[in-house]
């Protein structure tokens, strides 16, 4: 019943900016942590940034100072503002949410379908 839909990916030149959006919909009781992961060809999926329900954030070292994660608890959405993009940021970016649905007492991880970010040099 729960679905995460991402948007905002695209092609940008090095030094440019993109803003990714992810909206969670369906029968949601609560959302604990939301975040963004990315996966480049031939590499493991890695954590980019997370934001907890209270607003605390965490970033991987390679994006600190360039990326900003935020969330809107009313809209059940999470955003990733990406500035000063580098070619090494090129990857498929996936939205993630650890949430409890209204039909369960348990919390599960849900994933979006991914959105491509390509940074040219």
Keywords:
mainly beta, 4-stranded antiparallel beta sheet, 121 residues, single chain, 7-stranded mixed beta sheet, 11 strands
Q: Could you characterize what this model shows?
A:
With 121 residues, the protein is mostly beta strands. Helix content is 0%, strand content 60%. It has no helices and eleven strands. Strands 2, 4, 5, 6, 9, 10 and 11 form a seven-stranded mixed sheet that branches. A hairpin with a 4-residue loop joins β5 and β6. The protein is elongated and about 45 Å long. It starts with a strand and ends with a strand. The mean pLDDT is 96.
Bin the helical content: under 10%
User: What is the number of beta strands?
Assistant: 11
Give the overall shape.
elongated
What is the number of helical segments per DSSP (H or I, 4+ residues)?
A: 0
Instruction: Quote the distance from N terminus to C terminus.
Output: 41 Å
The radius of gyration computed from the alpha-carbon positions, rounded to a whole number of angstroms, is 14 Å
Helix/strand order, N-terminal first: EEEEEEEEEEE
Q: Helices and strands: which structural class?
A: mainly beta
| Sheet of most strands | 7 strands, mixed
Average pLDDT, rounded to a whole number, is 96
In terms of DSSP E residues, the strand content is: over 45%
User: Which stretches of 5+ consecutive residues score pLDDT under 50?
Assistant: none
């Amino acid at each position: 019943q729960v679905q995460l839909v991402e948007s905002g990916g695209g092609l940008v030149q090095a030094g440019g900016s993109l803003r990714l959006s992810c909206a969670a919909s369906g029968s949601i009781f609560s959302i604990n942590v939301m975040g963004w992961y990315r996966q480049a060809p031939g590499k493991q999926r890695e954590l980019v940034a997370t934001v907890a329900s209270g607003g605390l954030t965490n970033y991987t070292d390679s994006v600190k100072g360039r990326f900003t994660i935020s969330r809107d608890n009313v809209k059940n959405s999470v955003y990733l503002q990406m500035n000063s993009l580098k070619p090494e940021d090129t990857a498929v970016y996936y939205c993630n949410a650890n949430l409890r649905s209204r039909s369960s007492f348990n919390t599960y991880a849900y994933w979006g379908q991914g959105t491509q970010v390509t940074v040219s040099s």
